[in-house]
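As described in the Methods, two query proteins were run sequentially through the folding procedure within a single session, without resetting any intermediate state between them. The first query and its resulting structure tokens are shown here.
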Amino acid sequence: KRKQAEEILFDALRDLRFSLAKRGNIPPYHVFTDKTLDEMARVIPTNEVAMKKISGVGDKKYASYGKLFIDEITKFIQEQDKAGTKIQGTTQDVTYAYYRQGMPVSLIAKERDLKPVTIYSHLAEMYEKGYDINIRDFIDKSDLKKICESLETKGVPTKLKTLHERMNGVFDYDKLRLAVAHYKKENRKQGIIEYS
């Protein structure tokens, strides 16, 4: 049996499926089966990697419908958050939903009653995990290059304070946090072993 929040999300996903099927003049199960929607409602995938792990969501289905369903899921998370219903494991997803709407960090923090540093932490962690976040919204190319060069030559410190001091306090912690996330993500892609 589904929990109440899962039921609400399942119904919203089913409604989206119905409208897409109607628009495409195809049976709803050709979009996604009830079993797939049920798993989406339980797992709450909010990015491509997580969505593609759902049974019944392959590359083709993701290309056709994935982002629409992710949008519906993030809208649901936001609505639940505004209503005071916290969904475990989704605090970063709420931040991401606001980010995708183009809301600046200061407003996201105010809306969520969190500190901007927390929002930057969410964005850095999500960027590193592969969420679609444009890091250049927060740090310019030359600053990113300088910080990454330091990380390349001297390693990734366990504390940001060490990096802040190493860079003579030139960059604020938010930029450093995002640059470290970028560096780690790029090194993982290239198969380079990360140092600490």
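Immediately afterward, the second query was submitted; its sequence and tokens are:
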Amino acid sequence: GTILQSTDKGITWNALTTGVTNALFDIDFPSNDTGYVVGMNGVMLKTTDAGITWNAVSTGITTKIRAVDFTNVNHGVLVGDDGVIRRTVDGGQNWITFPFSSFYDVFDVKFRNDSIGYLMVQFDAYKTTDGGINWYKLGPELRSVKYLNDTTLIAVGDDMVRKSTDGGFTWTSQHPGQAPNWYDCAFPTQDTGYIC
């Protein structure tokens, strides 16, 4: 249940008290004060004071929650094992199941806004342009996707890094070597990126 916080651009890190021992897998701060973290056994925590206190959020999930993404402090989506995909429009007080059927683990979710979003499922990647009502298959297994701008995306999965310049409809692939599997990527600027 460890969360570390830096207030000096990553020079030093301080542990925050979460009150849980569960492994945590993903964290998202849609504002400076409000943040969400998810993890093992369906755990989800929320802070509204920039991490000083964390409170449990009831999701009704008991399996691993792998990822969470909020477009603002109220609108968010979480995904996890066994095809779990749920959405909230009230900051986590209530959750509804997405109309998406999968028994496979869902690795990641990213929404550009309340309409456009991406799911990274165990064997495929999907895109929605209508807030999750309909999903379109994009391609083979991807684990994480990041936006560089409205149309340019970088995604990783297996031993490849993929790039799309048309919102995910077509992809080019690179094999950077060094690792048999890539799990996540970050692009703090359009020119500088990291994969692990």
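The chain is about 0% helix and 40% strand. We note this only descriptively and draw no conclusion about the first query from it.
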